[in-house]
Every structure is written in structure tokens, then in C-alpha cells.
Predict the 3D structure of the following.
Amino acid sequence: MVALLEVNGLRAFYGQTQALYDVAFALEQGGITTLLGANGAGKTTTLRAICNMVRTEGRVAFDGQPITGRATESIVRLGVAHVPEGRGTFTTLTVEENLRIAAYTRGRSAEVKRDLDQVFEYFPRLRERIQQQAGTLSGGEQQMLAVSRALMLRPRLMLLDEPSFGLAPLIVQEIFRILRRINEESKVSMLLVEQNAALALDLADHAYVLETGRVVMAGPSSVVKNDENIRKSYLGY
Amino acid sequence: MEQLIQQVASGLANGAIYACVALALVMIFVSTDHINFAQGEMAMFSTYISWQLIQWGLDYWIAFFAAVAISFVAGVLIERIVLRPLHTAPVLSIIVVFIGLLAICNSVAGTVWSYLIKEYPTPFPKEVFGFSGLIGAHQLGVVVVTLLVLSLLFVFFRYTPLGLAMRAAAQNPVSARLAGVRVDWMLALGWGLAAAVGAVAGMMVAHIVYLDPNMMAGILLYAFAGALLGGISSPGGAVLGGFMVGVLENLVAYLGNAIEKGFGVYIIGNGEKLTVALIIVITVLTLKPSGLFGRVVVKRV
Ligand SMILES: Nc1ncnc2c1ncn2[C@@H]1O[C@H](COP(=O)(O)OP(=O)(O)OP(=O)(O)O)[C@@H](O)[C@H]1O
Ligand SMILES: [Mg+2]
């Protein structure tokens, strides 16, 4: 079987500084994989490298097709939706406009309408705030909006960068419940970056651990979760 | 009283032109943080193109729309070819490019069409029923045309997917890319629209100030003042600011005349109206640095 996303020998650079060293991993179609690691390990950079948002070397293939060196917006249009660190809200636009931006790449207005309804079914709170300026949403609502914006692209793969960041436990639970539904109902594969390892390992089926820009550990979530050594030395709980 | 109304009306006509140029400046500013100092000279050049087409025998309105279309394409090309390689260049380099563009437009126009002042036609009928005493036919036409252009742009930006994508690209380019928007093209499109709106302003004002390669210099200054007054980050504010500056300068002149008539002392007249209008704008900006309708820009570092 062809992996949905295959990453080989991935190196990434900020100016002269190298942030990733030959990172390699593969995602299965339909699965949820988590990328764990301490602050500065290179998790965000890995997601950025997949979408060509940093200077990158190596090989990234999406659905068997090499995407290295393609423009970010073209990669997105292939079906890779990136929910970025910091949520990337269009603060001066309304909630509805935030969601409709993605529609511009799609054209078909009937489909867009259906997808909007689907998104509001996942996150009813957004429907109530549809005409509100997005910058005035709470952190949790902005995270929901970010996930929804990604969904409006009809992605096959979602890259999620710390969706739990700065949110109260109840909201985090709600968002993670919806992520699971999205994965199951809409058949969206996910690559989930998290600080909160326990939470991520519950949702994901596979896990990779990064340390200073290198993959140091990989395996099924259940194994990683129950291995005390890994937990102590890499995940810190 | 009638004189006052006349002054306000002609102020609105001038203001309409400042509003268009102000909007062109803001359209580029919101997506690049730069003021295109060449905006006025580009508009002047577009006006010469329409003049040339009219000389060749084309109908005014055909020449008008042709010049708008040519300006749009030229704007897009300038962005793609000249400015695109400079996206990451330091601010000063970009300013130098703008000034270079300004000088090139000016000297090419001067070389091709000479620096002699030319008459420029008006497409509007001589007499306007009912209003004839209060506002000139051309002035009324200018207000109508610019309001039409501004409404079209409003509808485009507010209600079309492409307009939304352009606003998104200006507001948050990184997120826009992640939504699949081709941000580079949106920038180029913004340049095209700005050039087109500038062309309309140039063709409308040329009948009033006459056509010459330096005709936009003062207008750019007023438009810039209008944009700042309304809030350089707010398109709607810039339009209002443009109109306000237009009315303000005429009111200043009117007041000066009234004082001279009433008290026999000359304080301000037509010659000083620009200065006084700018002093008022500066005063407002000192009190409200982000303009009347602008948002306070918070930069995260
Ligand atoms: N814009 C940047 N410019 C220069 N260096 C950067 C930049 N962004 C990240 N880095 C560096 O790259 C390395 C990896 O950073 P990255 O943001 O990928 O870490 P992370 O695993 O996402 O951490 P966190 O959990 O804190 O978000 C770090 O050493 C960081 O300092
Ligand atoms: Mg990070």
C-alpha cells in the first residue's frame, strides 16, 4: 500500500541554522499520527517543511507524488490542510469570511454551502458567531475556526500544530472529540503535533518522537504510551 | 449662501478625485506596507494614453475604458516584473524603485507628448438641468463617475470570492497561502486595480487642471493627506478622507474670501488653501495618529 505522506531525508533551514536533520516518517491513509517532542525539537518546522514554508531539502511525497519544492498554495490545493501554530486567524474578517476564503479555490457554491453546514454541525458555536469579527473570538473558538477553515478545503490530510495550546481542558476535550469524528466521518488523515503527549497518544494510532531535529523514537501509540523509558526520557511524564 | 454651496460642491468634485487616488494608495499599502509614490505619475501616464487614443479619433468613452484596461494590465506587469523580485528587499530599496518609476513615467510622458500643457476634453454635456447654478456639469459628472467606480470596488471586495481572497491575502499572507490563495497574484491584481482607479482619477481631473506631465503632483499630496486623515489602513476611511480634504480646501478659500470682504483684511486665499488644509490634517493626525477611521496598528515583535 502507498503511504499517504512519505517523508525522507527531510532537512530544514532558517537562514544558516539547520532545524531538521534527515527526518523520515510515513503516514498511513486514514490514520492519525502524532509528532511529539520537547520545545524546540522541530515539530512545527516539520509541518512547515511539508508545506514548503521554510527552506527545505529532502523528499516529501503526497499520495505517491513528489511535492518537494512546490508552492505552499499548490500543496494546499492538492489536499494538505495545515492548521498552523497560533491558529492563523484572519482577525479583521468575519467568521463566515474566514471560512469562505477556502471556497475561492473551489468555485462550486453549492458544495461550499454544504461544507459550511457540515462545519457548523461539528462546531455549532461558530454558527452563532457567523458575522462576528474573527479577532474577537475566544482562543478556543479561534482554534475551532482554524480547524474549520482547514475542513473547508476538503483535505485528505490535516496537519495540526498544537490545537490544545493555551486552552482550558474542557475545550481541549471538545476539540479532540471533534477531531476524532472528522477523522472517522470525513475520512481525513491527520498529523498531530502536540506538547500534551498523553492527550495526543490517546487520539493517535502512531507516534514519532523528535529531539533536536531528529526522529529518535517511533511506534504504535499503545507501545509508546506504555513504555516507561520513552515516557521518562522523551515525554516527561 | 449660494457661493458656499458652490464651494462645497466643487470641493466634493475635487474630493472625489483625491478619494480615488487615496484608495489606490491604500490598496497597495494594506498588502505591502508601502506607499506607492509613483501612483500619481502612473495615473498621469494613463491619462496621456487616453488623450492619444482620442487624438487618433476614438470616442471618449472607448478611449476611457481602453486606458483603464491598459492601466490595469500595466499595473499587474509592474508588480510582477519590477516589484516581485523585491518582496524581501529593505524598505529603502523599494522607495528608490517607486521614485525611479515616478521619474520614468514623468520623463517618458514629457518626451513622447512634450511638457506643453494640453486641453483635455470632458465627456459630460455642457448644461445640467436644475443644478446649473450650483455645480458645473463636469464636476457633477466627476462625482457620479467616481462614486460609481468606488461602489463597484466596494461590491467586488465585499461580495466576490476573488475580492475576499485579495482581502485575506492583504490581511494575513501566510494564512492566505494555507487557504490555497495565490498571494503573489493577489498582490499583482491589487496593483492592477490601483492603477485602474488612478487612471479614472487622472482622466477626470485632466479637464480641470489641464493635461501635463506634472498634473498629478499636487493631487497625490492631497490624496495622501486624505488617506492619512481617514486612516491609511482603511479603504473606506481613505475615501472619506479624500472627500473631506477636497471640501476642506475649498472651505478654507471661501472663509478667506469672506473675511477679506467683511473686514478688508487678507488672511488666506486660494494660494494658501493647500497649506491650511494640510495644517488641519496634521493637527488631526497629531491628536489621532491612526487617522479618523483607522485601526491602531499593533505590531507583534
Ligand atoms: N523563524 C525562525 N527563525 C529561526 N529559527 C527558528 C525559527 N522558527 C524555529 N526556529 C528554530 O528551529 C528549531 C525548531 O523549532 P520549532 O518551532 O520547529 O520547534 P517546536 O518543536 O515546534 O517547538 P514548540 O513546542 O516550542 O512549538 C528551534 O531551535 C527554533 O529556535
Ligand atoms: Mg511548535
